[in-house]
Design a protein that fits this description.
Blueprint (H helix, E strand, L loop, with lengths): L3 H14 L3 E6 L4 E4 L3 H5 L3 H4 L13 H13 L12 E4 L5 E13 L2 E10 L1 H51 L2 H33 L6 E4 H11 L6 E4 L6 E4 L1 H17 L6 E9 L3 E8 L6 H4 L5 H9 L7 H10 L6 E5 L5 E8 L6
Parallel strand pairs: 7-9
Antiparallel strand pairs: 1-2, 1-5, 3-4, 4-5, 6-8, 9-10, 10-12, 11-12
Amino acid sequence: MPNLSLSVLFAAKAFEVLPDALLVVDELGVIQKVNESVFPVFGYRDFELVGKTIDILMPGSVRDGHRSNVSKYFSDPQSRKMGSGLQLKAVHKNGVEIFVDISLHPVESNKGLFVLVFIRDVSEKQQLLETVEKLTEVREELEKFTYTLTHDLRAPLNRVMSLSQMMNSEIDENNLEEIKELSNFISDSVSSIDTLIQGVLKYSSSKIMRSEIKEDVDLNNTIQELIHLIAIPAHFKIEIPQKLPTVFANKTAMLQLFMNLISNSISHNEKAEGLIRITHTENHEFFEFSFADNGKPIPEIKKQKLFDLQTQMKTLSNNERHGFGLSIIKEIVHSNKAQKIWVNDNDLGGTTFNFTWLKNSTIT
């Protein structure tokens, strides 16, 4: 028969030296014992947790639901190994939420049913997975972006080559009028290439802005800055019926966002008296902004791909009056924790661009 006291000694030692946080919890969810690894994971000493319910380690948003989960678990206790694929969170003593992996093992004793709760901090692993996911997304976008760019640059470049060959023929015949006309065509094609490249640079810079410094941005000041930055035609009027809020964002990104929305409305409005009306609403979670103009409605078929990068690049290569502005708008808005942007017709006879912006949020 094995030496029982020695087995107990080994078990006690193993309990303390385990690298994972280990808690013994009873059927009421009360913590009965913890090991030393609880401190580096959660910041609590044993005397701060023993006698408290395990809810103390749960985020407030799931605490009520977790209490009922404890009751369900003890009605049919089953072992659950780590790596179950569940994305779980716990709360450090300092209030910071951490990603954790949890293993549960029920233990029956003469004092009742208990569960051994093994908790591993996997925040670094989660951050690594998110980084890999972002890098994969960037790689896929870059591949798509590179293909589209090379495809759309080919058309104006081929045109330049063709015009150059035609010009050489005219030079041989000393036809100055034809040479001058061909020279203008070449200049227009080169201008299209330059516009396309500048659009690429602007789009790229809008993505870089995600990592720049964020601050409280008074959007009323942003509008005043824009008035000095862009040429607003004399026949255009900008209405702001109510004071705009202050948002937490990158100042340059918000300036670019508002500038592109206003410039887009101006460039697509041929009315004798142009109007842009900027309004907003809010709830406890986010602001909703609307930029309404009296230009003309956008056909439904175009609305579906209005913010698509490839679509905007095609309009540039075809010398249309669109560009990367709408793609930049989408990029900035979506960087604010998956907020959304959409368009609809309005009672002014034109189009309204709407977007939401999360309150008290950083751009990720």
